[in-house]
Amino acid sequence: MSIVIAGATGQLGRLVVGELLQRGVPAGEIVAGGRSAEQLADLAGLGVRTASVDYNDPASVDSALSEGDTLLLISGNDIQNRTAQHETVIDAAVRAKVAHILYTSVLAADSTPIILAPDHVKAEEYILASGLPFTFLRNGWYTENYAAALAKARETGTLLGSAGEGRVASATRADYAAAIAAVLTTPGHEGRVYELSGDYAWTYEELASAFSTVLGRAVSYDSVSSAEHASALEAAGLDPATAGFLAALDGNIREDALALTTGDLARLTGRPTTPLLDGLRPLAV
Fold first, then answer.
1. Largest CB tally within 10 Å, which of 137, 156, 231, 253?
2. pLDDT in tens, 125-165
3. pTM for the predicted model, two decimal places
4. Cα distance between residue 282 and residue 17, in whole Å
């Protein structure tokens, strides 16, 4: 019986593998799965077993799973196809008779207005219908999502956004990875739904102030409407669909879709979540 990480080539997945090793899980009991063998080579060098896992290829998922395994399904980033991809992995988990499936969902998936939620709701419903023992890890926002905004602010002294006075309870990927590893290595999580987010929900004004601190230059928040935001993003070179998507995300933040603070993340990790400033500092290097 192994712990199988589906999506181990991504940033979160790699951090989860590292957390498992730090918690004393034998490397040979971890299977790091991903599409690129090259990106898994360093994990193989640590003794971690690796496997080709392509969410578009049922056979590859079948070959990575065995009866009694614990499977972490890290949600895919192919927005156009990930509902089918998630179902491919879940179906393989059913065929393999895994003992427990964990899925990385989105904060308050079943009630949030956030544009990302529908795909996650479908995945959660599909897992429930599968009958597999499950845990839903509903991740909030990553502080690292603002790396590009930070780089732009370094050049312009401005944080452009349409989030208004909405709040974001972000945490770092390392925080989320630590919580996931805790669930993977301790009992009693079957059937649980964890709403994972940072301890404090900040505004974009506070984000701009944090940018100022880590960059050592004044950064102001330029608050605009959703339409103005989308237009500005297009003018900066983004295609209309991507610009509209990003503006819609800020609109969701304006509605406080990412403001929920439950304490679940800190309780699972056994420590406070990483403060905004500390999460941003590595991005400013």
1. 137
2. 999 999 999 999 999 999 999 999 999 999 999 999 999 99
3. 0.96
4. 21
Q: Which CATH number fits domain 140-171+196-260+274-285: 3.90.25.10, 2.30.42.10, 2.40.420.20, 3.40.350.10?
A: 3.90.25.10
Q: Which of 117, 112, 116, 67 is nearest to 93 (CA)?
A: 67
Dist CA 265 CA 97 (whole Å): 29
78, 104 contact by CB (below 8 A) = no
Task: Return phi, psi of residue 58, to 5°.
Answer: -55, -40
How far is CA 67 from each of CA 3, 61, 62, 239, rounded to the nearest angstrom?
11, 13, 11, 45
- The helix/strand/coil state of 71 is strand
State the first-to-last Cα distance of the chain, in angstroms, to the nearest integer.
41
Residues in the chain, total? 285
Superfamily of domain 3-139: NAD(P)-binding Rossmann-like Domain (3.40.50.720)
